Amino acid sequence: MTQTFTQDDVVRYIYNETSTSENAQIETALVADDTLLGFYLSAIELGSLMNKIRREPRPQSIENILEYSRNHKPRPLSAFV
User: Fold this and answer.
1) Among 51, 49, 50, 11, CA closest to 30
2) Distance (Å, rounded) from C-alpha 67 to C-alpha 13?
3) Spatial contact of 39 and 7, defined as CB atoms under 8 Å apart
4) pLDDT tier at 27, thresholds 50, 70, 90
5) Smallest Cα–Cα separation from 47: which of 14, 10, 9?
6) In which element (H, E) is residue 27 found?
7) Among 9, 11, 67, 81, which residue has the least CB neighbours within 10 Å?
């Protein structure tokens, strides 16, 4: 019987959330199904591009946090008991 794999299965494969048995089956499906292989290659490329995104808070966000910290006293530990 032939197993049909979905894009969700491919994503699970990319994130190593599949078993060794599933890996072999998905790899066979990728060789046989050009559409699935295209999705796999696109997902790998997108993941690589996303890893290159530089994330930094805006300076105003940092200033807001620091301002809040300067203007608010911490509660005593007894308030948490």
Assistant:
1) 11
2) 45
3) yes
4) very high
5) 14
6) helix 20-32
7) 81
Please name the amino acid found at residue 73: K
Whole-model pTM: value is: 0.65
Window from 22-31, 59-68, 69-78 with minimum mean pLDDT: 69-78
- From residue 28, give the alpha-carbon distance in Å to each of 1, 15, 20, 52, 62: 14, 18, 13, 30, 49
Between residues 9 and 74, the one the model is more confident about: 9
> Which among 44, 48, 47 is positioned nearest to 30, based on CA atoms?
44
On whether the CB atoms of residues 39 and 9 are closer than 8 A, the answer is: no
What does the domain layout of the chain look like in residue ranges? 7-73
Q: What whole-number distance in Å separates Cα of residue 13 and Cα of residue 47?
A: 13
- The answer to whether the beta carbons of residues 37 and 29 sit under 8 Å apart is no
